[in-house]
Specification:
The complex is a heterodimer.
Chain A: H1 18-36, E1 40-41, E2 47-49, H2 50-55, E3 67-69, E4 75-78, H3 83-92, E5 101-110, E6 122-131, H4 136-152, E7 159-164, H5 165-175, H6 179-190, H7 194-200, H8 207-218, E8 220-221, H9 224-229, H10 235-253, E9 260-263, E10 276-281, E11 290-294, H11 298-302, E12 308-314, H12 315-319, E13 332-336, H13 341-350, E14 356-358, H14 364-374, E15 378-382, E16 386-390
Parallel strand pairs in A: 1-5, 7-9, 13-14, 13-15
Antiparallel strand pairs in A: 2-4, 3-4, 5-6, 6-12, 7-10, 8-9, 10-11, 11-12, 15-16
Helix pairs in contact in A: 1-4, 4-10, 5-8, 5-10
Chain B: E1 5-10, H1 13-24, E2 40-43, E3 48-53, H2 55-64, E4 69-73, H3 74-80, E5 85-89, E6 95-102, E7 115-118, H4 121-130, E8 136-139, H5 146-150, E9 155-160, H6 164-168, E10 171-180, E11 182-186, H7 188-193, H8 195-213
Parallel strand pairs in B: 1-3, 1-4, 7-8, 7-9
Antiparallel strand pairs in B: 2-3, 4-11, 5-11, 6-9, 6-10
The chains are: A alpha+beta, B alpha/beta.
């Protein structure tokens, strides 16, 4: 006999019952919070032009996008990220919408990276974009919203770490590194590979800047990092540090201090972000569940330049931590004759949702047997009259 | 400080080298000496639980965050690694990646299509990409030295320690690719969520490594 079974694609997963309820619960909480801050909901198509993600500089290897060919022969990609699509929408509707734009989304992203890695193909994200505002108040709004979102999504033990894209960028500019060396150093800082940095940096002629870079990647934690960092000796980098100090002070003032940490060596996706960058962690999840930052150059790659900032939260990772019980099974069965369907539906409508189901059985005996097999305690019979039988 | 960390330790040579490092740092390693069939061993002195694993699994455990710390060779990191912190070069397990061919072969001088066998296809591809050269890579699971001998490949990329295995099989290293040694790696979330405990353990290892130099 041929085996006709078709399984789910690798990296995809099905969700049943309580798992659906858990994710919907998180989505509802995220949506309510974003709406309260004035962020309107946007849904964008799963399929986008492939160039959208390439031209906007999404720091993702092209092979990790799921691609197909569109009706017009162009390459389409299943969105690997929602920021570029939202930016596209913002550009397309700029005439109709007043800046600053506050947009939120709750939708899936698709990334395919390697086989048998245990990483998902499809991830549900909740995120916001604040487009058309720059400055500390916009950054504080986004960070406050990120903290509230983490708390609202059942992660009271969360931590958000802050960094600044200017720190590494300004120092690397002064170091005299080639683009290749710069990328190598960025990767080493991202890995906190102190040993390799210590070997690599003395080779550059500008020793003070090399030492500043080396110091940078060891500095993460609370307030103490501001005193440990001293002066980096490069104006833009020092400005980045004082901006972080201002942000951190304001958040601490607002009572968010304990949850916010600093990481001067936060250099992920450095060509994408232009200012503040941040990531959020919760216990029990091995990767960042929230990523975000300021990306003032992205809108310009699609048309009119506009400052922008935002973040995305991995809802699926947070779902794993939710414990929503499965709904209790039905305890009542309705046996009915076909001509009494209306009566049966009336009975169904009067019972608690989900606790009562129609019997598909032809005979009363079969319905009784089904009730017994399922542990159902009440049988309602709707034929010449309506009666309730306790079992 | 009562945060218990899990350390995934590559079985075999790195395991015994790491055991020595911990013992020298004053940690009671007796639970690691008679492991029997158990896979997890607690070292209360160092505040860690040790999980013995194959090298690629160490990386998987760290990436997924089921272990906070890992000891694994740079060879495995180069081949498989992506997102974790690589905080310490432990120094032991030292060797190198090298390109090797049959003695007397002029590998780079030939204009023929080049075939290279390796257990490390990603490392091999990155090496040839860096040289701006095309080469067909064949993944071999076992003794890679056989591939040039059997005529399957023109050269191999493999881990070389002394070169004795190469010369015993009529092969010679053509070029060193990069040095390799054991690394201490840390899960990114653990570095932030359990910073104090992670840094205590890193400091314990670092003190021992720095202490080794001076008598």
């Amino acid at each position: 006999m041929p085996n006709n079974r078709v399984g789910s694609p690798e990296g995809a997963r099905d969700r049943l019952f309580a798992a659906c309820a858990a994710r919907r619960g998180l989505e509802d909480r995220a949506r309510a919070l974003f709406a309260r801050f004035g962020y309107g909901e946007v849904m964008t198509p799963v399929l986008e032009r492939y160039e959208l993600f390439v031209n906007t500089g999404l720091p993702l290897p092209p092979e990790s996008m799921c691609k197909l060919i569109g009706r017009d022969g162009r390459i389409l990609a299943m969105r690997p990220d929602s920021t570029a699509p939202i930016a596209r929408v913002a550009q397309a509707r700029a005439g109709a919408l007043a800046a600053p734009l506050r947009l939120h989304y709750i939708q899936d992203i698709f990334r395919t990276d390697g086989r048998h890695t245990g990483r998902p193909l499809e991830t549900r994200q909740a995120g916001v974009e604040l487009i058309g505002s720059s400055g500390i108040k916009a950054d504080l709004e986004i960070l406050s919203l990120a903290s509230e979102a983490m708390a609202a999504l059942g992660a009271p033990d969360f931590r958000i770490e802050l960094g600044h894209a200017a720190l590494f960028r300004a120092l690397a500019d002064k170091l005299g590194a080639t683009p290749e060396e710069r990328e190598e150093l960025r990767a080493l800082i991202g890995q906190k590979n102190f040993a390799a940095l210590g070997d690599r940096l003395p080779a550059f002629p500008n020793r003070p800047v090399g030492e500043a870079i080396e110091r940078l990647c060891t500095l993460f934690g609370g307030w103490e990092v501001f005193s440990d960092v001293g002066t980096l000796g490069v104006e833009d980098a020092d400005q980045g540090v004082s901006y972080l100090r201002e942000i951190y002070g304001a958040l601490e003032n607002a009572g968010l201090g304990g949850r916010i940490h600093l990481d001067f060596g936060l250099v992920h996706q450095m060509e994408y972000y232009t200012g503040l960058v941040f990531r959020g962690y919760v216990s029990g999840v091995g990767h960042a569940v929230l990523t975000g930052g300021r990306y003032d150059n992205l809108m310009g790659t699609l048309g009119a330049p506009l400052p922008a900032t935002g973040f995305a939260i991995d809802l699926d990772a947070l779902c794993e931590r939710e414990s929503v019980p499965d709904a209790p099974p039905p305890d009542t069965l309705i046996h009915f004759s076909v001509e009494k369907l209306a009566g049966a539906l009336r009975e169904l409508g009067n019972r608690p949702s989900g606790r009562c189901v129609l019997s598909p059985c032809q005979t009363l005996e079969a319905s009784l047997a089904m009730a017994a097999a399922r542990g159902i305690k009440t049988l309602i019979v709707v034929d010449d009259d309506t009666r309730e039988v306790s079992l | 400080m009562s945060t218990l960390l899990r350390l995934a330790l590559t079985k075999g040579r790195l395991e015994s080298d790491m055991r020595q490092l911990l013992a020298a740092a004053g940690v009671d390693i007796s639970p690691l000496l008679d492991t029997g069939r158990r896979l997890i061993h607690r070292l209360p002195d160092a505040g860690i639980e040790v999980v013995l694993a194959k090298a690629p699994d160490v990386i998987t455990y760290i990436e997924h965050g089921v272990c906070e710390l890992g000891v694994v060779g740079k060879d495995t990191i180069l081949e498989l690694g992506s997102s974790f912190y690589e905080v310490l070069d432990l120094g032991f397990g030292a060797c190198r990646f090298a390109l090797a061919a049959r003695e007397g072969d002029d590998f780079f001088g030939s204009t023929r299509h080049r075939r290279v066998a390796s257990k490390y296809p990603k490392v091999t591809a990155a090496y040839f990409a860096g040289r701006g050269m095309d080469a067909e890579i064949i993944k071999i699971e076992g003794s890679v030295e056989l591939a040039p001998i059997l005529g399957l490949a023109d050269a191999i990329v493999d881990i070389v320690e002394t070169g004795a295995t190469l010369s015993a099989n009529g092969l010679a290293p053509i070029e060193d690719i990069c040095p390799i040694s054991a690394r201490l790696i840390v899960n990114v979330a653990a570095m932030k969520m359990k910073k104090a405990a992670v840094q205590d353990f890193v400091a314990l290892c670092r003190r021992r490594l720095e202490g080794e130099g001076c008598p």
